[in-house]
Amino acid sequence: MANNPLFPEDPDDTRAAIMEATFDALAEHGYSDLTINQVSQRFAKSEGLIFYHYDGKDEILLELLKYLLERVQKGRLPIADDVDPETRLRALLDNILPTGDEHQKRDYEKVLVELRTRAIHNEDYRECFNRSQMGFRESVREIIVAGIESGDFREVDPDSVADFILALVSGEIFDRITVDRHRTVRTELDDYIEDRLLAVEES
């Protein structure tokens, strides 16, 4: 398997190895066509070990979702808290909506969209996504509040801004995987920061 920053380069625990194998299989085949056998073909150990830890496809996919969201949460704010709020906000958006067409990032987005459709009818999946989305929203809100207090941002409603950015980012990720058209959402977000958030310097 190609090195994937979401997983250890040489995973020394069974869970990480199974999660990486499941991720690769799901990115290639999608939920409907995914089988445990396809996962086992990407797993260096025996298929029986997979069944020892998981009862079936749905259980292993829910575990994959939790694993991915844990990894994303840990890497959500790569910039230290003592950096100015504008830099922190742009870094957060860089992490969520990178420019370019990075293959591994697209695989990650593809897998998340596949799993998110399960949340329509499955409460466990929905709970995971609710927790992740609220974590992202709170990260944005905290940055906006800090920017207002420091004078870097205007006196905006932090909740409304966080909701707006969350909706825009979620829609962009979904569209990048499900429709064939070029969008400039990140550019518009940068313009939004410039025109609506940054405090106007007094002359």
Automatic annotation (TrEMBL):
GO terms for molecular function: DNA-binding transcription factor activity; transcription cis-regulatory region binding. It holds the Pfam family TetR_N. Gene3D superfamilies: Tetracycline Repressor, domain 2. The keyword Transcription regulation applies. Residues 35-54 bind DNA. Keywords: DNA-binding, Repressor, Transcription, Transcription regulation. This is TetR family transcription regulator. It comes from Halobacterium hubeiense.
